[in-house]
Amino acid sequence: MARYTGPVCKLCRRAGIKLFLKGDRCFSQKCAMESNRKPYAPGSAGQGRRRKMSEFGIQLREKQKARHTYGVLERQFRRHFQEAERRPGSTGENLLRILEMRLDNAVFRLGLADTRRQARQLVNHGHIVVNGRKVDIPSYEVKIGDVIAVSPRAKNLEYFKALGEVLKRREVPTWLTMENEAMTGRVLNAPARQDIDANLQEQLIVEFYSR
């Protein structure tokens, strides 16, 4: 299955909530989920009366919301879930923690990218180093104590030259810390559930895979 490359606003409309897939646009009046735009589901039937969704449909939609939020393909998402099952503790919280500690998400959370999709591109192009070594695998799971930084060569790119002022306005979650001038972040600890602001009901995802 190929990665989704269509209009991401349709994904938000299908989920019924903002997934914040287009960066600053999602906070503006241009957002398709605003009341004066298209808050209904895509397609010709989206504006019509919708039947009550089944329990399976609700679980499936929640799983798809998580996939699209973090930009993960189905096979990869299932592997993350299987790893979450193997770890001690709540499977749902383990899953969200694994998704949060992906390198592309950590780059996004540090404010180095407007969206996770852009963060994934930065990682793929080799612009990010972890503990001084280039890592170009977006799904790489960062660990406590890891130092995530922009590579010295990439700092000469226009994008990163203009990023300095933007970083000062962006908030970093409590499980990370960021040095804006050096464009270097550190993983302080694994995120707890209250540190993860994704609007997801992880128990529904667990129920989906437990059928």
Distance between the termini: 23 Å
Q: What do we call the CATH topology of the largest domain?
A: Ribosomal Protein S4 Delta 41, Chain A, domain 1
Largest sheet: 5 strands, antiparallel
Radius of gyration: 18 Å
Give the number of domains: 2
**Mean pLDDT, nearest integer?**
86
Molecular shape:
globular
Order of helices and strands: HHHHHHEEEHHEEH
Helix/strand class: alpha+beta
| CATH architecture tag of the largest domain | Orthogonal Bundle
Folded structure, characterized:
The protein is an alpha+beta fold. It has 2 domains: 98 residues, Orthogonal Bundle (Ribosomal Protein S4 Delta 41, Chain A, domain 1); 87 residues, Structural Genomics Hypothetical 15.5 Kd Protein In mrcA-pckA Intergenic Region, Chain A, CATH 3.10.290. It has a 5-stranded antiparallel beta sheet with strand order 2-1-3-5-4, covered by helices on one side. Helix 2 crosses helix 9 and helix 3 packs across helix 4. The longest helix has 16 residues. The chain is globular and about 55 Å long.
Quick summary of this structure?
The protein has helices spanning 8-15, 55-70, 74-86, 91-100, 103-109, 116-124, 158-161, 163-167, 202-209, and strands at 128-130, 133-134, 147-150, 176-179, 184-187. By secondary structure, it is of the alpha+beta class.
